[in-house]
Amino acid sequence: MGNNAAIILAAGDGKRMGTDLPKVLLxxxxxxxxxxxxxxxxxxxxxxxxxxxxxxxxxxxxxLAARDVSYRTFMQYERxxxxxxxxxxLPILNGISDVLVLCGDAPMxxxxxxxxxxxxxxxxxLKATVITATVAKPHGYGRIVRDEGGHLxxxxxxxxxxxxxxxxxxxxxxxxxxxxxALKTALPLIGNNNKSxxxxxxxxxxxxxxxxxxxxxxDSYACAYNAASEYxxxxxxxxxxxxxxxxxxxxxxxx
Length: 255
Known about the structure:
single chain; globular
């Protein structure tokens, strides 16, 4: 699939799950969540894959080493947000045209969605494409705010949403395609003036859209690609959600 790479964010711990295992190694449907994500990226034709690791990095490294594919790992020593995590993997962008960013604990995103979003990204000559889904219960997800023409305006985190924005049912999956050069330009410009003091990757999308980071080929610098399935955004933040995700994955892959 072209001269591309993927960065998978896998630095989270499993404390909220009541385990010492890294969160991405918890299993759903008989496979580690990270395994589903890696298989989705590989299945979409991406061979150059980097994994950002954190605490218990040795455990994740051992898991990666046991697989048939070779991966590059990047250490995030401090947990300073998704934008900061991607910054740790900048070396993988050398000589790369477009890069896919995925969450290692979002196992429902499939190869078909990744490929469809990439085709949309390339066909419209975009600098940033956020993969979205329309869900029945959007609570807790960043909302996709569009203008009257359907163009992406911003990604609004739940805590920052207006009452009107809270009614939006199109949400951010946490997965993105970026033009590599545009991402490298935007990342150092991300600020951490928020309640968590973290550097958020959605801010890179906002910067690319607002400041027109890119080479001037198109007026549509950042857009949203709405996936066919609402399941792609699903993850787990507690044991109950993990059990529900496990049951759903087994149901969808019963064959």
